[in-house]
Amino acid sequence: MKKRSIFLMAATATLYFNNAYAQETPQDSIKTSSIDQIVITGNSGPKKKIESSTAISTFTAKEIQKQNPISAAALLQRVPGFAVETSGGEVGNNLFARGIPSAGAYEFVQVQEDGLPVFEDGALQFANADNFFRVDNTVSRLEALRGGSGSIYANNSPGGLINFISKEGSNDFKGTAKLETSTYGLMRTDINVGGALVQDKLFFNVGGFYRTDNGIRKTGFRANNGGQIRMNLKYVFDKGYAKVYYKKLDDRNTFYLPIPLLQDGNDLKEFPGFNANYGTYSYRGVSQLNIPQAGGGFFKRDLENGIHPKVDVVGAEFKYDLGNNFSVLNKTRYTNINMEYTGMFPAGAPKLASDYATGAIKDGGLGMSNYQYSLVSNGALVNPQYIQKLGFWAIDKQMNNFVNDLQFNYKFDKGSVTAGFYKSNWKSHQYWNWSNVLATASDKPELLNLVNPSMGPSDTGYSQTYNGVKDMSFLIRDSQIQGSLNDAYLNFDYNVTEDLSLNAGMRYSRDYYKGYKVNTTTANLNNSGLTTDGTHSFATTTADDNMAVLGNQYTYWNYDINKVSYTLAANYKLNKGNAVYARFSHGFRSPNEEAYYNNISDLSAIKAVDTNQLEVGYKYYSRTFDIGIIPFYSTLKNLSFTDVFSDGTSENKFANTTNFGVEIEGYTRLFNNILEVTFNGTIQNPKYKDFVGKNADGTTFDYDGNIVRRMPKFYFNISPAVNITKEWRAYVSMNYYGKRFQNEGNTDDNVLPAFTEVGAGMSYQLGKIRFAVDGTNIFNTIGITEGDPRSQTAAGTNIRMARPIMGAAARASITLDF
């Protein structure tokens, strides 16, 4: 670890002290001038950034290339107002917009490709939106909108819109090819080509990537393996254009979950035998599951498949000038997803092996009078100090989404009117089969068997395990949710003067949700005729005593949404490069999937989350300096908390919140373009309001005025870069994430300490070839993004379960532009 950090620091220092300085704008400049940028997200049509009364951040393909983000979530860390947790790996990460709390995922923002959702709901259980999208060289630019008009142009997006816009072909044939490797076994190839099949008429673009690596955390297997291909074909005619496109994603990604750490005052340090920067419970030694089922047959699962989505997308876009200043735009897309999701979820913190075996059942022990542990792999007797119960969670999801957005636009001298109708039908069916396994509490865990040596191997209840499985298929869930969304929207832009513009928008949502769950019963394998080892029956083990079995009884539910979202804004250009704006918006988020499931017998207990936001902003853009300062205030009502715990249950609490904050985003070039600095930061104060009630055990709670869980009051990113020569460039990037609380009670034993993550890199441009080295977390910081929402703190110990960022790593790449 130290060698990697020293190497990265030395490489960066060498570049900084190189004495050849550029005297002209470098080829490798990180930033495109914002003064000329056009944005389309959250607007009725293309609009200059300075004229848009929205809080929007933009990143061109060149800027994304310079940052070389390891995931989509890592790229979104550069957006103020978005608190992003990146510790899950390449996918499965969490984004919180403007202090809006949730269980995770992308619950209050919508992730889009070319203005339509990657999937309609980006926060379905185990289906985070970033599971179905990858950043590669087919992306032309990213536009990230916070708050504002998000609720007018998309569903369930009061926190904002994240729109990845695809490259299209032009008359000039051009392309990019990239080869990348790393310190963790990465081999990745990206390619993108585009051009004209018929000059000025028919254009194409095709690209994608394939990647395999071992993962920064040491899994003992291929942690990430797969890729995608994206292509589009566009025909341009006198009065418009028609475009068709296709995407295929087939990728496997390991999902990293909390690990044990030791709390030392305000710091979290390594747990003995567990490397905080590179260790994981998702390890080869516990990766295979093959167990008989109470209903017959076997259930087999491979942890090495991790999160494995197979995504097929086909879509079309059509624009036509109807004459007399009228135009029509129609976007349509069909998405089909089959995803296998397998993760190793710790079921609480490690326990002393003796306490776990002999402790009282009411305290989480097994109440054994005598015990003996052995390794499943070879039968050797062992006496571990700590053991870990791990949830082997297996989920299968079949999802599809058909969406159509029809939009009419009328332009007049002073502005424009846009009216549209949005229709989306989507469905998600899921099957869960969860088991618990028993393992050593180390970063290379091994499966354990636990028996009572005072009994004979043929005695009933002799063993607590079956080949390391503590609870066989203890939870099975079969459920479905589907939505039928019918939304009409209207947007009005009016230029009062050349400098003053007004914007008003409204969206009427008439949405229908329905679904079902299959009820379950319990059974065991005692009388099945099966044996545990070819000799002994399942009566000799307790591992099968509480197996779930799907029945033939279904519970159905329906829920309707009838809501109006609206926004009103004004933008005033002080001069060519200065503008101020103000916006008020009201939006909502429909109840999430787990809220429906938990309240299936009485859906009146849940409501849509209502949001109100007020923001004012100042924006200044020039060729060498940009700044945006946006104070905001937001309130939320009926916010539900639906964390899924290790036993398959989930909490059912509802809260109101308030937040006041300021977003800052800036960029500057100094000293004749030698030094560039990009910066974004957020200062906020998200609090619970009127959050009182009863816990599941009947005790009362009062969290009124507490800080919203997992939300930092202050976080920022600053990235200075030195253009040493016209060809050479070096940069340092620093992410700071402030102190947070894991729980609503804001207790000291659930503090997530502040941390700073530093990255660094360099690049050299040789004609059309670019060489680059990028290092992440070069100081090997133990930075905690979240605790374990599925487990409470281990009482009476200083053991804490939390999910740290990845350890130090470096990537090297060669890119050819042609």
Automatic annotation (TrEMBL):
InterPro entries: Beta-barrel_TonB, Beta-barrel_TonB_sf, Plug_dom, Plug_dom_sf, TonB-dep_rcpt-like. Residues 49-160 form the TonB-dependent receptor plug domain. Keywords: Cell outer membrane, Ion transport, Iron, Iron transport, Membrane, Receptor, Signal, TonB box, Transmembrane, Transmembrane beta strand, Transport. Its main location: membrane. Residues 1-22 form the signal peptide. PROSITE patterns: TONB_DEPENDENT_REC_3 (PS52016). It is found in: Cell outer membrane. It is a multi-pass membrane protein. This is TonB-dependent receptor. It comes from Chryseobacterium herbae. The lineage of its organism: Bacteria, Pseudomonadati, Bacteroidota, Flavobacteriia, Flavobacteriales.
